[in-house]
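Teaching note: in complex prediction, the entire set of molecules is handled at once rather than each chain in isolation. The prompt given to students was simply: 'Predict the structure of this complex.' The entities are:
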Amino acid sequence: MSVKYYIISKIELVDSEPATTAVGYVLNEAEAIQASADYNDYVQWIRTNRSDLIAGSTNISEFFNTTPKVYFNNLTVDTIEGLGLSEITDLNTLV
Amino acid sequence: MSLTLGNKTNSLSTPTITTKTFAHNNGGGSNNYLFLMVCTDDATSYVGATYNGVAMTLVAEHTDSVYSERIAYYYLASPATGSNNVVVTFDIEPYNPVSCEAFSYSDCAGAGNTLFDDTAGSPNTGSITVSANSQIFGVAVGGTNAGKNITINGSSRTLEFTNNVYNYIYGAFSASGLSAGSISTSVANSSDVMGYFIEIKEAAASSTQGLLLMI
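The expected output is the structure of the full assembly:
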């Protein structure tokens, strides 16, 4: 079976807009799921507030007031060639 | 040469603009094709998809009746090789999560039949008719992250990815080299689940090979 690279990224506000930045990768799905714990809250918040976000009556910055950074597994690839990422060996460093 | 699956890229994001962009490394090869699956809530529609700026062709699109997730399959023949951007364009900012799976093939003849099994319950079974030496890619959309399974041609398949798009989408490939005819499919989840399958066809043997066989 080929190796899968689970790339972990963080979402945070940059100039009042959510920006996604890759921070590294893990090599198994369990760690990818563990790293994505806050993402479930983010998805739920968006679902609840999407109409207001579209209408402009709610700003996505409201979510980040309470959770400044959201880590999640946003890419899963067969090769990390050219991505310049390192393995995350300790998920506790994602703080 | 036989149909060969190349690099695969799964991307999950929550775009706050009307495009989603991610890189996919296409390895190239003869009769090279790139395929793309896109899934998001049906509050958003797809305008189109490109790879390295070249428009991809829509194969099929369907919105399920339980979770209202919109699934589309696209393909592109002779895509640029190397790491290039896939760009999906929407009619409105999705905000909701968008799941994409891009995968490359060589010695491929493009997309064949599709199956959209939009029936509540679990498991959901169906069948898709394929040509000789095809391979099938399928995704399932379920309400939970538990009880996930995709079975194709009687074989439970290794899941390539699971994405939280408010509901859960997960995907798998069949074994390669399927026999021509009707192939059974089954998707399972601890909640209602729908299956979406596409046949990937093998390129026909070249005329040179045919002549050699005659000799």
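Point out the following to students. The mean pLDDT of chain A is 92. The radius of gyration of chain A is 15 Å.
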